[in-house]
């Protein structure tokens, strides 16, 4: 089985889902009652993730400024930072597990995403 099987179109759709999860789940898990840093770090990271996803030159990107290759590198870096945050900030157990899971999902998404092939049509919606 090929390791890089996720198409750029599917990656772009999952990016927005992950961004929403990074904003919504800390609120649902009440991370703010345990650590305000755990709550706001995830919300800010989710907003940043949605912003650079919208600025990526791939399907469902709104304003293609960032290359897809650079986007995948940012994804991997953000995921590693997410998984290191509990060690740096000393988060409680629930927040630590959350950050490892969300970081692991992001890293998995970046790892299994295949690069854009030459001549591949990237539009999931028609751009003007």
What is the CA-CA span between the terminal residues?
37 Å
How many distinct helices?
5
Spans of at least 5 consecutive residues with low confidence: 124-128
User: What portion of the residues fall into strands of 2 or more residues?
Assistant: under 5%
Reported for the largest beta sheet, the result is:
none
- From the spread of the alpha carbons, the general shape counts as elongated
Written as H for each helix and E for each strand, in order along the chain, the element string is: HHHHH
Number of strands: 0
What is the average of the pLDDT values? 89
| CA radius of gyration | 15 Å
- Give the helix/strand class: mainly alpha
Helix content: 55-70%
- Assembly state here? single chain
Describe, in plain words, how this protein is organized in 3D:
With 128 residues, the chain is mostly helical. Helix content is 67%, strand content 0%. It contains five helices and no strands. The chain has helices at residues 8-28, 31-34, 36-54, 68-89, 93-112. The longest helix has 22 residues, at 68-89. The termini are far apart. The model is unreliable at 124-128 (pLDDT under 50).
Question: Which terms would index this structure?
Answer:
disordered C terminus, elongated, mainly alpha, 128 residues
SSE order and pairing:
Elements: H1 8-28, H2 31-34, H3 36-54, H4 68-89, H5 93-112
Could you provide a short overview of the structure?
This protein is mainly alpha-helical and 128 residues long. The protein is built from five helices and no strands. Helix 1 (8-28) packs antiparallel against helix 3 (36-54), helix 1 runs antiparallel to helix 5 and helix 3 (36-54) packs antiparallel against helix 4 (68-89).
């Amino acid at each position: 089985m090929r390791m890089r099987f996720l198409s750029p179109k599917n990656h772009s759709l999952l990016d927005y889902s992950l961004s929403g999860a990074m904003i919504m789940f800390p609120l649902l898990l009440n991370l703010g009652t345990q650590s305000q840093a755990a709550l706001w770090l995830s919300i800010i990271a989710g907003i940043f993730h949605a912003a650079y996803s919208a600025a990526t030159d791939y399907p469902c990107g709104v304003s293609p400024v960032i290359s897809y290759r650079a986007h995948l590198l940012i994804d991997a870096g953000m995921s590693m930072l997410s998984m290191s945050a509990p060690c740096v900030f000393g988060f409680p157990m629930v927040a630590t597990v959350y950050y490892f899971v969300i970081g692991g999902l992001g890293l998995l998404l970046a790892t299994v995403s295949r690069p854009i092939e030459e001549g591949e049509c990237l539009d999931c919606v028609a751009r003007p």
